From TrEMBL:
<dbReference type="GO" id="GO:0012505">
    <property type="term" value="C:endomembrane system"/>
</dbReference>
<keyword id="KW-0325">Glycoprotein</keyword>
<dbReference type="GO" id="GO:0005615">
    <property type="term" value="C:extracellular space"/>
</dbReference>
<keyword id="KW-0732">Signal</keyword>
<feature type="signal peptide">
    <location>
        <begin position="1"/>
        <end position="20"/>
    </location>
</feature>
<comment type="similarity">
    <text>Belongs to the CREG family.</text>
</comment>
<dbReference type="InterPro" id="IPR014631">
    <property type="entry name" value="CREG"/>
</dbReference>
<dbReference type="Pfam" id="PF13883">
    <property type="entry name" value="CREG_beta-barrel"/>
</dbReference>
<dbReference type="GO" id="GO:0005737">
    <property type="term" value="C:cytoplasm"/>
</dbReference>
<protein>
    <submittedName>
        <fullName>CREG1 protein</fullName>
    </submittedName>
</protein>
<feature type="domain" description="CREG-like beta-barrel">
    <location>
        <begin position="22"/>
        <end position="190"/>
    </location>
</feature>
<dbReference type="InterPro" id="IPR055343">
    <property type="entry name" value="CREG_beta-barrel"/>
</dbReference>
<keyword id="KW-0964">Secreted</keyword>
<dbReference type="InterPro" id="IPR012349">
    <property type="entry name" value="Split_barrel_FMN-bd"/>
</dbReference>
Amino acid sequence: MAGLLLLCAAAGLLLAAGGAIPPPEEAARMARFVLHNCDWGALATLSAQEGLRGHPFANIFSLSDGPPGLPGGSGVPYLYLTDMEISVQDLEINSNASLTVSLAQTPYCKKHGYDPQNPLCAHIIFCGTIVKVNDSEAVLAKKALFSRHPEMESWPKDHNWFFAKFDITNIWVLDYFGGLKIVTPEEYYSVKP
């Protein structure tokens, strides 16, 4: 019976909404795949707000590593931010953050009956810093973000929006039973999803 369950779980990993997902032994590819197939993530900062100072604070942000579809994106999570946003105010004090993305936001997990907390509903946790991008990289960030989030182009200009990226220092992958897998940024950027 356990063998049948593992066989079914492995078969479920073969088809995702955007195509075949990488096998569990390819953690770096899985991290790239999940990020590229997600349009948003939970960004956690250390709060700088009165009454919450020093406490963890998570917020949802739209993101993109490139236009949807094949070939896979750059692997760089780009964001469109304003200093008016509470989490961005936290980042101005301490740019360290973590970013979690999950296949739970795609049709994949529902299609296979996976609860978002089930390891087979892969999620990736990135740690690093948020940095504003320079003008040349802003062109890439704009294309990546506006291709997935066209509404962004019409957001109020007086909010002083800017393009930023999540500069990845650590990566953890949870995509199968047996615990987290550690992927280095070098491994992550050297593969295609």
